[in-house]
């Protein structure tokens, strides 16, 4: 197994996080999603461990599965979340400028 890097900050429990505001459920769902995505990262780190290097079907299958999961997360989930957050930010800025002008 790969040793966990010491430069990584301490893991925070998503269950203990308190979200407030009109989009609190959305933020909580995103926090749980990105917390669960850390599992893919941990599996990818273990698959890439030099001590586990084998040319057998299991190793190749694990590498392909983790790569496909990471690509799906990067190309679909992250893009959706970033575009959605940009829309929310635009709405927030628009409301703020209306408040300043008024």
Automatic annotation (TrEMBL):
Q: Which PANTHER family match?
A: CHROMOSOME 1, WHOLE GENOME SHOTGUN SEQUENCE (PTHR37327), MICROTUBULE INTERACTING AND TRANSPORT DOMAIN-CONTAINING PROTEIN (PTHR37327:SF1)
- Species the sequence originates in: Parascedosporium putredinis
Which region ranges are annotated with the description Disordered? Answer: 1-22
Compositional bias segments (type: Polar residues):
1-21
- Name of protein: Uncharacterized protein
Entry superkingdom: Eukaryota
